[in-house]
Amino acid sequence: YIDEMDKITRKSQNVSITRDVSGEGVQQALLKMLEGTVVNVPDKGGRKNPRGEFIQVDTTEILFICGGAFVGLDRLIDRRINAQDCSIGFGAPVRKKSKTTGETENLLEAELLHRVESVDLVAYGMMPELVGRCPMIVPLTDLTRDQLVQVLTKPRNALARQYAAQLAVSGRGTGLHITPRALASIANQTLSKKTGARGLRAIMENLLLDVMFEIPSASAGEVEMVVIDELARCDDVVGDVAGADVAAALLSCTPLYGPGSFVAWKQQHDWKSAGLTNSDDAVYEGDFTKCDKYTDKVAEG
Questions:
Q1: What is the pTM assigned to this prediction?
Q2: Do residues 82 and 72 touch, judged by C-beta distance below 8 A?
Q3: Given 42, 71, 77, 206, which residue has the most CB atoms within 10 angstroms?
Q4: Residue 152 is inside which H or E element, if any?
């Protein structure tokens, strides 16, 4: 698998006779490797040593998969599809630029990427010979809000479970509870920032930063639960919390002190009747107070 293919595109359509700094020379080297040749691979990593030992590898029977972000490719596809609407003059049709945000914008971009062709990659800066040797072009869509919530909660080493285990160790029994609305808001913030699943950690770190410094200084069992809840909603929210185009809400991270404080908090806020359906409860519900990897260590310590 060859990643970051979009970083070696031709930056200019003009042929330069000077030193190649655009990456076209790298494309020419990859072209020879993709079509099948014998390459010399250094025995050890690091810089290529002309006196070191090499291992000859025949790339004829190797399946190469090339990938990249290709930021801005959707605009080239849109320009090609609507080429007849790009004329200039008094009689030219006027195209209205749609204003979309969040997940709707991602869906529109995904629809354009599904209509990608080889000419679009060539216009982006890839060599026609290199594009011709990659016969299958498969676009990938961005993660949706529900998928981001599942990434945050479902895997064995999910981010919520990691923070729950960290709080259980540092707070000597402190649990972590994230309400369904807070999970949806965290996913919406990630969608608005377009940082993908990697952006979930930055949001969680900002929420739990102060609490993770306060809990170790408390006595054992003093803090029963840390609750991440939705503090307030933005004024420009469209639709309910289960909708696709929900603006990011303000989140609060509150430590609950004393035994029974979490039960009292749940009775006061009644978060299960927050307008979510049963299917949404099945997706978002969870206290994350137990992590299989760290349960035994917490019980022993």
A1: 0.69
A2: no
A3: 77
A4: helix 145-153
Class of residue 247 by CB neighbours under 10 A (exposed 0-12, middle 13-18, buried 19+): middle
Other beta carbons within 10 Å of 151: 18
CA angle 98, 109, 72 (to 5 degrees): 100
What does each C-alpha distance from 263 to 93, 122, 153, 249 come to in angstroms?
62, 61, 22, 24
Tokens (6 digits) for 288: 């994350």
Q: How far apart are CA 183 and CA 291, in angstroms?
A: 18
**Distance between CA atoms of residues 166 and 176, nearest Å:** 10
**How many residues in total does the chain contain?**
301
**Whole-number Å distance between alpha carbons of 45 and 32:** 22
Six token digits for residue 5: 């293919």
Q: CA torsion sign, 160 to 161 to 164 to 170? A: negative
Contact 153, 282 (CB under 8 A): no
User: Per-residue pLDDT tens for 247-274?
Assistant: 345 788 888 888 888 888 887 775 443 3
